[in-house]
Automatic annotation (TrEMBL):
It comes from Subtercola boreus. It is a multi-pass membrane protein. Residues 16-81 form the DUF202 domain. It comes from the Bacteria. Its main location: membrane. This is DUF202 domain-containing protein.
């Protein structure tokens, strides 16, 4: 990076600026918004039949959606920082005496925490929906 904060040309050659990172961030934002909206609709539909359980599941889904939105923004900034700063060439070995020590730059891409949390939440939601359908079918068979 140069002093003005813009990447130097040699690091731009190694970093493909084809907007893959931005597309991934937008995909996570759509996922977070879909979880939030689906949870609100689900809470509205479940509240008459399931009572507080339906509202509680809706609130949990909204919180998960907000978590995904916030975490995806953090993840995007981190990945972009790693790809733009970690790929820049090493600074010259002879640094001036007045220069401040270099700030620690991240070198690791983020792990799979966000996809794992979303996958676990989808699994739990699927199991809850399955249980709800089985309970409703059992109640309908007993009544009819």
């Amino acid at each position: 990076m140069t002093a003005g904060g813009t990447p130097d040309p040699s690091s731009r050659e190694r970093f493909d600026d084809g907007l893959q990172v931005e597309r991934t961030a937008l995909s996570w934002q759509r996922t977070g918004l879909a979880i939030t909206a689906g949870s609100l609709v689900g809470a509205r539909l479940l509240a008459p039949g399931a009572g507080w359980w339906g509202i509680g599941l809706g609130v949990a889904g909204v919180l998960l959606g907000l978590f995904v939105l916030v975490r995806s923004g953090i993840r995007h900034r981190h990945v972009h920082r790693v790809l733009t700063t970690a790929l820049s060439p090493a600074p010259p070995t002879a640094a001036p005496l007045t220069a401040a020590p270099p700030a620690a730059t991240p070198t690791q891409l983020p792990g799979a925490v966000l996809p794992a949390v979303v996958a676990a939440a989808v699994l739990v939601a699927g199991l809850v929906a399955f249980g709800y359908v089985i309970a409703a079918a059992t109640a309908a068979a007993a009544a009819g």
